[in-house]
Write a structure and sequence with these properties.
The chain is 23% helix and 29% strand. With 630 residues, the protein is α/β, with parallel strands linked by helices. Among the domains are: 227 residues, Alpha-Beta Barrel (TIM Barrel); 82 residues, Thrombin, subunit H, CATH 2.40.10; 97 residues, no CATH class.
């Protein structure tokens, strides 16, 4: 169980080094980023040199850089993965985020390991096992509620990480194979085709339509803004924002939002502390509703909720701003709840319930002149704003400053002056300046003049919290000498801070090897190489089946396992509504089917566990596709 004065870490996504630097500037205690290969977002790869640049910036604030190394690996990729891991270690990366247990059986550098969300940590037993085999930080499944999180925290010593914002995978993470089955693109290898965002028609066992052409596997976005205190008290120590493919305004806005909320919590609770240094000042007020989202849900943290799906559209509709009152040949008039500006982006649901977007070129009161008139806009339709031009322009500029508090003391000694600096983390430097003592010509302003010069910290990482001047009498100190002394002291303090930013220690696995909770593993364990197989066998597993991506499964299997239940969301849960009268009579709920064009998926329900299984089979024998070699 975590100890008192536990650090709370805000973990933000970085598509690239520039995004990661801005995440740090906007308050992240750590960022996670993909390397040149083996990350579970193939469109967010980065060269090692860029990661080194991000590390250098992050470490100035004692913030950390974690590298997503979380695909499953083919045997032919293990050597390339080993070589890349050492390059990342040499670049200063603080941890590797890992899914494939085969990595624990190769010659990795002494770098901290974090268990990726794809390791599917939903049980105490799984968490304890990963805790025992050497993971320092483990990402709990998004589907967990507060009592289960608390139970895991009480049973483990690893830092617990939890997603608090962003897109939700409807499947248990690492347990979705629809993309590979239908397209040959594996989600576990960074190439998910996002079948969950497609429209489907839901039929019951007699072929009757329960829902038509809806995005039935698409979830609203995760938003735990109201639950941070409860999550911390349950044992969460790292609060993770989803979004390695999101744009820069999202990273800035959402990072600043959660930094603000966590700072308020830290001000109220002395038993928690920050995980990095510095305080942020923003040129904008964070507003999470302004950047991409599909609506908000806290998912299962407070138990099963009735409305967690984004069934109407997987796109960003935006905030409601008014209603159409008139449609002209090249304009729209609307009764607006908020003023709009030239360049704003709007959206509306047309008569087919499809989300349509438009850009407003000119706003003349309640008259909106778009860049192109949409075909199906009508009187009475609700308008949403999904791009606030003024807000976006604030985020396009420099929008945050992060400064580390430093106490400065300028003191007279026998034949010299001494400038001592001490920052908020206890890093200190002291410099001497030999100088002839001269009485100040204007003694009433002498001390304030010294403080003014020393406080000019400009574009450095520091801001003076206090500046003390200690002398026997007001003395004259040349401005140029003071400035040179300050610059040298700040440079030395920055160097001292980097020296104090020590590597995170690698945890050692327990001996003898901890037993895995099960002795038989199906394809759901995602074992794709001989090293992963050896890992599980070492930990007592007797039977290890190959990953689904090995194409050894035949016939129908569970292509997705999810806590989201379409019976429940349509009022057909036998626990909640026995005997419900549905479309054209009593709906027989199992099996149900999802249909998208020629694709047909069968739904089966495990009511004891409150789980839905999406069942299907491989469309054809897809070839093994290897991650790009280094």
């Amino acid at each position: 169980m975590a100890t008192d004065h536990a650090q709370l870490e805000l973990l933000a996504p970085a598509k690239n080094a520039a995004f990661g630097i801005e995440a740090i500037n906007h308050g992240a205690d750590a960022v996670y980023i993909g390397a040149s290969a083996f990350g579970a977002r193939s469109d967010a790869d980065n060269p090692v040199a860029d990661i080194a640049r991000l590390v250098a910036h992050a470490h100035r604030f004692h913030a950390r850089v974690f590298v997503a190394f979380n695909t499953i690996l083919h045997d032919d990729e293990l050597e390339a993965a080993r070589a890349l891991a050492w390059q990342l270690y040499d670049a200063g990366a603080d941890a590797l985020i890992v899914q494939d247990m085969g990595l624990l059986e190769i010659d990795l550098p002494p770098i901290q390991l974090h268990a990726s969300t794809q390791t599917d940590i939903r049980s105490v037993e799984k968490a304890v096992f990963l805790d025992q085999v050497g993971f320092s930080q483990i990402v709990l499944a998004r589907e967990l509620d507060l009592p289960k999180i608390r139970e895991i925290a009480q049973a483990t010593s690893a830092k617990l990480e939890f997603f608090v914002h962003g897109a939700l995978c409807v499947a248990f993470s690492g347990q979705c194979y629809i993309s590979h089955a239908h397209t040959g693109r594996s989600a576990n290898r960074g190439e998910c085709s996002q079948a969950c965002r497609l429209p489907y028609t839901l039929n019951d066992t007699q072929g009757r339509i329960v829902a038509h052409d809806k995005h039935l596997l698409s979830m609203k976005d995760n938003d735990q803004s109201a639950n941070l205190r409860a999550l911390a008290d349950a044992g969460i120590r790292s609060f993770k924002i989803e979004g390695r493919l999101k744009d820069l305004s999202y990273v800035k806005n959402i990072t600043a939002h959660y930094r603000t909320l966590l700072d308020k919590l830290l001000e109220e609770r002395t038993d928690y502390s920050r995980a990095s240094s510095g305080r942020c000042a923003y040129t904008f007020t964070p507003k999470p509703e302004k950047t991409f989202n599909r609506g908000a849900t806290d998912y299962f943290v407070n138990g099963r909720q009735a409305d967690i799906g984004a069934f109407d559209s997987p796109k960003f509709s935006g905030e409601e701003v008014g209603r159409v009152t008139r449609v002209g040949s090249d304009y729209i008039e609307a009764e607006l709840d908020v003023p709009l500006q030239n360049g704003d982006g709007l959206s509306f649901y047309d008569s087919h319930k499809e989300l349509v977007g438009l850009r407003v070129n000119i706003v003349e009161g309640n008259r909106l002149i778009p860049n192109a008139m949409p075909e199906d806009v009508r009187r009475g339709m609700t308008l949403f704003r999904n791009r606030d031009q003024a807000f976006e322009r604030l985020l396009e500029k420099k929008s945050a400053e992060r400064r580390i508090s430093v106490a400065m003391r300028f003191a007279e000694q026998a034949n010299r002056f001494v400038l001592a600096l001490s920052d908020e983390d206890g890093c200190t430097v002291s410099l001497e300046m030999v100088s002839e003592k001269q009485s100040a010509q204007h003694p009433e302003r002498a001390a304030s003049s010294v403080r003014e010069q020393l406080g000019k910290l400009g574009n450095t990482d520091f801001i003076a919290s206090t500046i003390e001047v200690e002398w026997s009498q007001p003395l004259f100190v040349p401005v140029a000498a003071l400035n040179a002394l300050r610059r040298e002291a700040v440079e030395q303090l920055a160097a001292a801070r980097l020296s104090a930013c020590l590597r995170l220690p690698r945890r050692q696995a327990s001996e003898p090897p901890a037993p895995y909770p099960d002795d038989v593993l199906s394809y759901l364990a995602n074992v794709y190489n001989h090293k992963a197989r050896a890992f599980y066998e070492k930990h007592g597993v007797r039977v290890v089946k190959s990953a689904y991506e090995a194409n050894e499964e035949s016939g129908e299997v569970s292509l997705m396992i999810t806590k989201h239940c379409l019976r429940f969301s349509h009022g057909l849960c036998p626990k909640e509504a026995k005997g419900v009268i549905g479309v054209q009579g009593t709906v027989t709920a199992e099996p149900m089917t999802l249909v998208n064009g020629k694709e047909k998926l069968t739904l089966r329900f495990d009511c004891r566990r409150c789980e839905m299984h999406v069942v299907g089979k491989m469309k054809k024998s897809w070839p093994v596709v290897l991650t790009t070699a280094l």
